[in-house]
Amino acid sequence: xxxxxxxxxxxxxxxxxxxxxxxxxxxxxxxxxxxxxxxxxxxxxxxxxxxxxxxxxxxxxxxxxxxxxxxxxxxxxxxxxxxxxxxxxxxxxxxxxxxxxxxxxxxxxxxxxxxxxxxxxxxxxxxxxxxxxxxxxxxxxxxxxxxxxxxxxxx
Amino acid sequence: xxxxxxxxxxxxxxxxxxxxxxxxxxxxxxxxxxxxxxxxxxxxxxxxxxxxxxxxxxxxxxxxxxxxxxxxxxxxxxxxxxxxxxxxxxxxxxxxxxxxxxxxxxxxxxxxxxxxxxxxxxxxxxxxxxxxxxxxxxxxxxxxxxxxxxxxxxxxxxxxxxxxxxxxxxxxxxxxxxxxx
Amino acid sequence: xxxxxxxxxxxxxxxxxxxxxxxxxxxxxxxxxxxxxxxxxxxxxxxxxxxxxxxxxxxxxxxxxxxxxxxxxxxxxxxxxxxxxxxxxxxxxxxxxxxxxxxxxxxxxxxxxxxxxxxxxxxxxxxxxxxxxxxxxxxxxxxxxxxxxxxxxxxxxxxxxxxxxxxxxxxxxxxxxxxxxxxxxxxxxxxxxxxxxxxxxxxxxxxxxxxxxxxxxxxxxxxxxxxxxxxxxxxxxxxxxxxxxxxxxxxxxxxxxxxxxxxxxxxxxxxxxxxxxxxxxxxxxxxxxxxxxxxxxxxxxxxxxxxxxxxxxxxxxxxxxxxxxxxxxxxxxxxxxxxxxxxxxxxxxxxxxxxxxxxxxxxxxxxxxxxxxxxxxxxxxxxxxxxxxxxxxxxxxxxxxxxxxxxxxxxxxxxxxxxxx
Amino acid sequence: xxxxxxxxxxxxxxxxxxxxxxxxxxxxxxxxxxxxxxxxxxxxxxxxxxxxxxxxxxxxxxxxxxxxxxxxxxxxxxxxxxxxxxxxxxxxxxxxxxxxxxxxxxxxxxxxxxxxxxxxxxxxxxxxxxxxxxxxxxxxxxxxxxxxxxxxxxxxxxxxxxxxxxxxxxxxxxxxxxxxxxxxxxxxxxxxxxxxxxxxxxxxxxxxxxxxxxxxxxxxxxxxxxxxxxxxxxxxxxxxxxxxxxxxxxxxxxxxxxxxxxxxxxxxxxxxxxxxxxxxxxxxxxxxxxxxxxxxxxxxxxxxxxxxxxxxxxxxxxxxxxxxxxxxxxxxxxxxxxxxxxxxxxxxxxxxxxxxxxxxxxxxxxxxxxxxxxxxxxxxxxxxxxxxxxxxxxxxxxxxxxxxxxxxxxxxxxxxxxxxxxxxxxxxxxxxxxxxxxxxxxxxxxxxxxxxxxxxxxxxxxxxxxxxxxxxxxxxxxxxxxxxxxxxxxxxxxxxxxxxxxxxxxxxxxxxxxxxxxxxxxxxxxxxxxxxxxxxxxxxxxxxxxxxxxxxxxxxxxxxxxxxxxxxxxxxxxxxxxxxxxxxxxxxxxxxxxxxxxxxxxxxxxxxxxxxxxxxxxxxxxxxxxxxxxxxxxxxxxxxxxxxxxxxxx
Amino acid sequence: xxxxxxxxxxxxxxxxxxxxxxxxxxxxxxxxxxxxxxxxxxxxxxxxxxxxxxxxxxxxxxxxxxxxxxxxxxxxxxxxxxxxxxxxxxxxxxxxxxxxx
Lengths: 155, 181, 421, 650, 101
Description:
Shape of chain D: globular
CATH architecture of the domain at 28-93 in chain E: Orthogonal Bundle
Strand content of chain E: under 5%
Oligomer: heteropentamer
Strand content of chain D: under 5%
Strand order of the largest sheet of chain D: 1-2
Number of helices of chain D: 26
């Protein structure tokens, strides 16, 4: 009984001399795994066009209905997205979002993915509504060629 | 001079405390004023150089007995008490009369010279050593009887509390013991 | 200037110095606890507000403790500056005095702790012998017991006056816990008192003066262990922090307290820790004496009067040093045990107090008395260490008791758990 | 010989008790050896002590251990008194105990309670040694109660056997009756003298002999005190009327019987009488009672022993009978002779018991009808048994002869009232002693074997741990008499024990001389000695005739011819039945009577009073309203009045 | 010191009287119990005063006995109160009049 007690003390004593397992957070950040479901990102193709075609599947599948988007016809001369339509307005309400990742699953174009960003604190509630501009990748971060759809061709 | 002021302060506190024990409406205030009285009486002991008595007074009365009182008051959650019923009023006023009477009488006895005068030249101081020797020689039998009394009290308290346990819940350890067997 | 007046002034100065020193030490004990607990849990610990805030010391940023050394003061400042919230339903008078009643006894214990050997001071041509303790009572240990006995009222009243269920349960738990462990605490000291033949702390230290082998812990291993455990219980430190019990009672008796009043409870807890360590050091670990006594000639050399004003400085410094080291280590032990043991269940607490500690203390008392009677040590007037015979006899008796307690506890555990494993 | 060694004598058995009691489970057989070693240590201290007391320069001394309690008039110290009597007692107590311990190593081997047994033995010996050493009556009483407790534990040792726990309880309860007498005597002494220190009591007794103080010669007080003390002795030493526990106590293991009933516990009574001899001689009435009771006990027990079938029962009644002899000697004022008989008796009776144990161990039978012819299987046991029998029978020049003859002579020569009658009874008892002891021997070891076949097959000599004590004790039974040869051979060195005890018995002797009667001549003593020798030989011859030569027809015819006497002997004078029917039954009847009395008389009165009270209390009931506060009020009123009166009359 | 001897005794008597009156003025048993403790304390004060002034340790010895009795009484009494409270939901002395029957 007393020996058990001493054993316990010995365990904690050993731990004193071990290296801390924690990170010195603001300075040192823990690397997130690739599958981490942080803040959403909207991806592009390698030519810089947005992948989103404004199909609104993500909004449909979203359980707390945190996604709001308004679609607009693409101007073929100065296309914003690769598809026939693009999202003029794309908002995700981050207080509503439950970070389930269904939008990621539902997206047929791999336009929306969840990224490693987890520091999302804000001072105002309105700041938690995330706009397209905040989520879009930089133009040079795109990948892949857009699939040319028939509907996109002039008749 | 300083000691004299202190002494009068303590006397005042003791009387005030004991009065408040009786007057306070809530039991917990009574208990607290009782503690105050006990502590001031302990202080009076210190002024009389009776350090052992002072320490024991605080340890036993304030440290143990009154904690028990508080414990029970909290356990029973006693609030303000209702006034006495009509039937008890004569008892109350007669009690006041007799209480004051007995106080006055004893004070009269004190001043009528029943008590032997103090030896003004520093009376042989009472040390722990003296008390210990006295208890273990001349007062050995009272001492042993007191020990037995304490034992009986402990057993009595346990018995009183125990029946409660048997009727109601059993402790986790007991359950585990039964399961172990 | 009359001698009496000077002595009173010295007295007052001593009070101020000791009180100030210990109060200053409290924040650092908090810091020590936080750092040590962090290390035990393999965390970094406080490292934000450190000396690197001071211009020119920026290079210290992120270094081990140095980085967080101001945390103690920042915490204090935070508590002092916070808004005080008072629930309307509390009993206002009791609610206000409860923190005071908790804090004052914790400080009062310091009055009897000897921090070092006396020093001599020359004031206006007269030599004054100044013991490095506020007072040396004939009934020092009884004073200590009395003060710890009173300390419980703060917690009980805080629990009662808050008028909240959690607080009330915390208070009731505290009073039951105090009553249960007070007895074991007192009885665990009886062995030491028997050895010393006195209640006086100076005498208790005197018999431990000559080296580590004279320390009372060898004569009273059970007494020291019981005192330590009861000290944990009485100061509500972790294995016994049922009155607080964060996970079940919110914060127990101080749920409804905030700001300065909470800070008082907080301080009282750490002051208690300090006082227990100090008393334990004094009673069992040789007080301010070092483990190996220096030869008398060395003392004669370092204790020579300096400038004809003070004498005995050398041994006083050594004494305070050893005292501090021991207290520091004991505080570390407190933290270490907090980092190791989980909280007791309530019935386990009562079980330990009444069925293990109290019988063990009683047996220890009887065994010690018997050994002392057999080895036939006459109680001498001068506080001198005993011969090795008594130490060896008591040590053997103590080890036998330890083994017996161990066997009994193991058997109990086995019986309670059954033979499942 | 310093105090430390004296303390060691009882401390070693205590250590044996503690070691075996606490750690016996782990020590096993080693624990037994430790106990034997402890007891041997005690004996090793006692033997030189005795030698110095006997032949070297020796002055009695006290060893004070600690003050037990001190409160006003009571001041009891735990202390030991070492004088000549103590030395003698220590010698045989420790020696015989050592033999029994050693013997038990063989006898109890393999018993499941081996260590329990040895721890009890250790405690028993500790108590006995405290009893012997104690310098004041309370200390003696501790030992006295201690041996009582241990006898209970040891007799009831085989607790799963049917009779043993009951026998233990019987011993304990019967002893309690005697202890009550002891306590009463002790308290009376304390009330009168304010001290319980034995030496101070004897000092007071010496004053009493001169007619001074509360203990005046022949006074009522001293008579009652001594009678009360003697009641204690009858319980512990199994005299009439409290002797019935001893035969039942044979339910214990045989070494226990040897220890308790031969050498130690039962002799405590004799020891007490001798120790307090200065007090006892002051009460001639008590001395007469002692002598009468002792003679009756000796005769009754001897006659019972003649016909018992169980070998241990024979020895048990023989013990009671021999104890009667010892008390007889004390009763006529020959304390030296009494204690010397205790001394010799302890050797041969221990030898007899151990021999019987050896037989039981070997043959697994203890009924004389089923034994016989064992000599060829176990020669050592047989020879030692024979020697011990010869010694107890009083065959000339053996230890038993010397001591018993001394007693007979003392009785004859004392001139006490009725001494001739006592002497005749004693002589008859001596004859019976020879008969029953040799009857036991012949029926066990000689003649045809009556054992069943398989038991006979297993019969064998016992291991050395059992035979060595037998041989040593038999040796003692032969030579112990040499320590105190009869006075007729001169008053020189060889009258050792009487000389040795001279200082202890001096107060008693002085009193006796002051009230002396005529003395007889040496030639008469020689003649009587010859007579007792003849009696012993005649007894042996009788035993031979009826248990070997004419077995079994002769014995049967004898029984038929003295049918009444045979019945009396066989049914043990109906003592136990008497107790069962009249003491226990009487208590029962008394209880019934009391019930009736209580129901009709007391209750009737009570109901009458209650009726009257209930009538009267109609008026007082108003005061008793059940409220504590009202009671306090009345109490305060009373206090007011009392203090007022004090002030008024001041 | 001298002023303390009659003074303390008078104080003791006054506390005693207050306790005695309190027994009759209060309603719940636990406060009555406290008043009894008050009377004990008054007696203690008297004993210690006389012991110290006359230099006799007997007073302190009696004080010890009183304290012990008070402790025993508190243990049993409070246990009783808890039982009574369990039984009848209050501990008012007026209603504890079973002794009458």
